[in-house]
# Entry
Amino acid sequence: MDRRAFIGALAGGLLAAPFAVEAQQAKNMPRIGVIVPVEPESPTEPNVSAFRQGMRSLGYVEGQNISIDYRYAHGKDDLYPELAADLIRLKVDIMVVGSWQPALAARKLTQKIPIVGIGMGADPVRLGVVASLNRAGGNVTGSAWLTGKEVGGKWVEFLKEAAPRIVRVGYLSDPRIQANQTLTLEAAQAAADTLGVALQVFQARGLDEVETILTQMGKDRGSGLVVQSALFFMAHASDITKLAAKHKLAAIYATTVFMDAGGLMSYGPSLSDLWSRAAIHVDKILKGAKPADIPVERPTKFELVINLKTAKALGLMIPPSLLLRADQVIDW
# Structure
């Protein structure tokens, strides 16, 4: 080989080396598939951002030592099997899924790929997602969403405190997830009985049914509204909060998604905290732990958010005692 050919071969080898290293790194890089149920497609969306930050805090940097593929359902539960199947085709090492419906859809398609579910309902065992909370069993672990005693009663209590003239509370529920709401509804009923408030359960499968229910409630002065934690309602947060405002209904919601849409109050587990803590489960699994052996966590951080602008529009004076307990007060 002459000198020119030798130098050419050497240069070519030097240029190829980094690409070979990158290819090897990409091949060995763990791949995570994430199903986002309702939140918009944005890396800065609070819950997705919390998960990304949680991963970074544990030393995982996207594109460097881990690969993450995001799939968005936009509140359409019929997309969960399709999205899960897509991630399976990509041969992801772990799936991270928001809520119990996509967790259940993913588990039906694979019993091999570890699944980390975020906020998997009030009772993931009863829903058939895991075998037990202490030892998840199978390939699914993660976190539960809430329990009735922690939230259901508080919804009615906070609503009555914010709007003392309320004598009736409509509890808006999605019948498709009724099994997930028994404990919460029981706690809400107990609180209503204690406060001398009539509680009436309304079921809605579509936005037109929601509109009919809220229109009827708006005709009865002294009515308040509780909106349960259902992905269908979250997907239509803007429409529901506008209807509540139109019919002058004081309402409390299960998640802060409704506060972004102008809701009066929300109380429930911090979704951002649950998404952030999902990174801890991912880290454990990547280090060799089996999902079957990892306990399902319960929420530890709860948030009360109050919108004073909405309260003013409804003619409500939120008492200082309630404002002092709020984790966030919106006044713009």
Notes: The CA atoms of residues 16 and 174 lie 57 Å apart. Confidence is low (pLDDT under 50) at residues 17-25. The chain has two domains: 30-146+271-293, 148-269+302-330. Residues 148-269+302-330 form a domain with the Rossmann fold fold (CATH 3.40.50.2300).
